[in-house]
Known about the structure:
- It is built from 7 helices and 5 strands.
- By secondary structure, it is of the alpha+beta class.
- It has a single domain (3-149), classed as CBS-domain (Roll).
- The strands form 2 sheets. The chain has a 3-stranded mixed beta sheet.
- Strand 1 (34-38) and strand 2 (44-49) form a beta hairpin.
- Helix 5 (87-97) packs parallel to helix 7 and helix 6 (117-123) packs antiparallel against helix 7.
- The protein is globular and about 45 Å long.
Amino acid sequence: MNVSTIMSKDISMCGPESTLEDAALRMWESDCGSLPICNDAGMPVGIVTDRDITMASMLQHRALWEITAQEVSNGRAVFTCSQDDDVTTALKTMLAQKVRRLPVINNEGRTVGMLSIDDIVVFAQRGSRGMHTPELSFDDAMSTLKAVCKHH
Length: 152
């Protein structure tokens, strides 16, 4: 099963110079917990989460409209997957990097969606007592979910 089958396609994004206030409003309006930070060409250069916003507000003692998305992404690597990748490849990336969300890119490197552990869990299926092998196994999804949820 390809990532494009289960990814969220209608997503909000922000730019590096977007304020955290703007990012938080976009998250609220889109009912999501993270936004890819994209350059002018639509390529992901970071990711900002609701937790990043909360922690920046508390630790920096500055208003959200004074802090940019770029400041909180702070040069952290952004891990992505391709829309053509098999979901198990994306699971391996999530597991290895201990991330819950991956911006999905097309062949030109532009952001075309977001894949979250939530999307994966929703599509995961159990086999019928070994008689049926699902495209996205429940066991693989749960193993990844456990790994990214574990405190580190």
